[in-house]
Amino acid sequence: MCGIIGITGDGEAVEILLEGLARLEYRGYDSAGLVLGSPDGLWRARAATGTRSLGDLRKQAEGAPGACAGVAHTRWATHGHPTEHNAHPHLDCSGAVAVVHNGIVENGQELRRRLAAAGHRLASDTDSEVLAHLVEEELAAAGAGDPGGDTPGGAAIGAGGGVTTGGEAIGAGSPGGVTTGGAAGGAAAGSVLAGALRRALAQVRGSYAVVVQWAGDPERLVAARRVSPLVLGLSAGGAALVASDVPALLGRAERFWVLDDDQGAELVPGAVSCFGTAGEPVAPRALAVTWDLEQAQKGGFADFMSKEIAEQPQAVADTFLGRLRADGTAGLDEVRIGEDALRAVDKVAVVACGSSYHAGLVAKLAIEHWARLPVEVDIASEFRYRDPVLDERTLVVGISQSGETVDTLQAVRHGRGLGARTLVICNVVDSSMAREADGVLYTRAGPEIGVAATKTHLAQLAALDVLALHLAQVRGALGGPDAGRLLAALGRVPDLVAEAVARAGAVLEVADRLRSARDVFFLGRHVGYPVALEGALKLKEISYVRAEAYPAGELKHGPIALIEPGAAVVAVATRTPLWEKLMANVEEVRSRGATVVLVANDGDDETASLADAVLWVPPTEPLLAPMVDVVPLQQLAYGVARAKGLDVDRPRNLAKTVTVE
Ligand code: M6R
Questions:
Q1: pTM of the predicted model, to two decimals?
Q2: What is the number of the ligand 1 atom nearest to the C-alpha of 453?
Q3: How far apart are the CA of 409 and the centre of ligand 1, in A?
Q4: 481-493 pLDDT per residue, tens
Q5: What CATH number should be reported for the domain whose range is 3-297?
Q6: Index of the ligand 1 atom closest to the CA of residue 654
Q7: Fewer CB within 10 Å, N- or C-terminus of the chain?
Q8: CATH classification of 312-499 is 3.40.50.10490, yes or no?
C-alpha cells in the first residue's frame, strides 16, 4: 500500500502535495517523493529516510521552482529496497515522463527484461518504473516522444473551463456551477498522454493506481486504476486533484468522485474527465464526503483495527498476486533460495511469536500434508535455548509482521549460525530479518497500525500456503490435479474472507453477550486449534478478558474442571478434520452448563443445534479454512473490547513491535 496525490491548477501545488503526503503516511512511509511540471520540464525530489522521509523531502522542496501541477508519492515498499533510487516518482529514459504507482505489476520482471533489451535504462529495482518506460514507448509510437516539440495531443486546455479531451468533463468553470462538456460521443478521443497510458497499461498484469505527468503537456495529469483506489476532486478555485484516498484532498477539494476499476481520468486546470479501457468517456461516480481528517484516515471506520479487518480480502489477494500461476504452480521467484536447495531440505523449523506463531502452526499442517516434510514450530523466544538440532539441510522459517521482533530475529540468526538455510515471511521490506535471511517472502498487507495483528496474520497464512505448495511441487509430493484444485481454492479465498468480513454485524451481537464474561475458553482441533489460539489471543490483548485456548481433545485431561454453569466456550466447529470428535467435546462442555458459541459453516444446522450462538462462515478446503474461520474471532474480540469502551488500537501494556528480549 502506498499513497499518491496529484494536483494541477493551483500555484500552491508543492504545499498541497506535501500536506497530502503527510495525510497519506498511514499508507506507508519508506520514502517520499514528488515531481513538479512547468514549461521548463519536470523537477523531481525524493527522500528515503524512513519516518524522516517527508521532512527531508520538505527541505528539498524549499528549492523547488514555481509550478501549479505535480504528483507525489509516499511508499510502502513491496518490490525493491526502500532506498532513494527506488522512491517514486519514477522517470522514463529522457526524464520527461514521471509516474507514481500504488499496486503490484505482476509481470514487472518480464517487462523489465523486455524494456532493457529494447535499450531502456532502468534506474530502480521496482516493478513500478516499467510504467514510465512503457508510457515513453507509447508516446514515441504516437509521434509525441519529444517534449520539446509542438504541444502534443492538441488538446486545448482552457483555464477554468471545460476541456476538449474526449472524456465527460466535470468542470468548475462557472462559480458554483458544474459544467459537463467535451464528451466525445463514446469514441476514444483523449489526449496523447491518456492514449499512451492506456496502451501501456494494456501490457500490464496486476493492480495499479497510477498517475502520470509529462513534460510535453506539464499541466495535464493522467490517472488510471485497477484494484488500487483513486479518488478525484475539484477545488472551488478550479484545481483538479487525484489521490489514493480522501484524507489527502480534505479541505482542498470541494467535490469528490471515485474512479472505478479499469477507468482512467485526465486532469487539467478546471476540469476532470474520465474514460474507460477503450478511451470512451465515462461518467465518474460522485462521492459525498462528510468525514473530518481523523475519520478519513481511518477510511470512515471507527478505528484502525476495524479498517484493517476490512482490508483482509485485499491483503490476501495481494499476497497471492503473481504467486499462484496460471500454469498451476505456486511460484516464489523472489525468494532467492533455488529449487535444488529446497529439494535438499529434510526438515523445516518455524520460529515466530504471537499471531505469527499461530500462522506457523497452520503452516506445519500444510507443509507436512502437502510436501511430506517434517516441520517443527517453536515460540521464537524458546528456540535457541532448547539447543535445537539444525544443519545445512534444515530450512528455518521466521515469521514476523515487522521483521524486527528480537526473539524471532535471534532465532533466525541462531539457525543461520548452525548452517541452516533461512527464509523469512514478513510485511516490512528491508526489515532486519529480511536483510539477514537467505530468502524473503513478503506479505503484502500494507502498514498495520492497530496493535492487534489482523490483516498481516491473514497475509502470513496466505504466504505460507504458497510456500507449502511450492515446497510440495518442487519436491514432487503433490500431483498436478491436487495442486490445480488447491490453487483454484486459494484463488477463491479473498472472496470468502470478504464474505466473512461482511458479517461483522451478526458477530457484534454475539460479542455483546460475552462482554461480561470473566473467562472464555477457546477450543479447536487440527487446523481449528491455531485458530482457537488466535481467537483467544485477540480477546486477551484488546478486551482484557482471560481467554485460554485448548486442543479440544486435551480438555478431559484437566481444563474441563474449570467448566461450570455460565462459563463461555467458543469452538471452531467448521467441517475440518476431526469435526466429529470436536463436537463430542462440545457436548461435554454443554452438558456442564457452558454457554457455547460455535464457528460453523453456512447451512450446517447439525453444528448449530449444539450452539447458544453461531458465527457463520463460508466453507473452504480444510487447510485453507483458518484464513476464513479466524475472521469472526477477530470481530468477536473487537466487539467485546468496544462494548467495554476500550481503545482497540492501543491496548494497555503492548507495543506493535517488540524489540527487547
Ligand atoms: O511483528 P511480529 O509478527 O514478529 O510480532 C509478533 C507478535 O508480537 C505479534 O503477533 C503480537 O502477538 C500481536 N500483538 C498479536 O495481535
A1: 0.75
A2: 16
A3: 13
A4: 888 999 999 999 9
A5: 3.60.20.10
A6: 14
A7: C
A8: yes
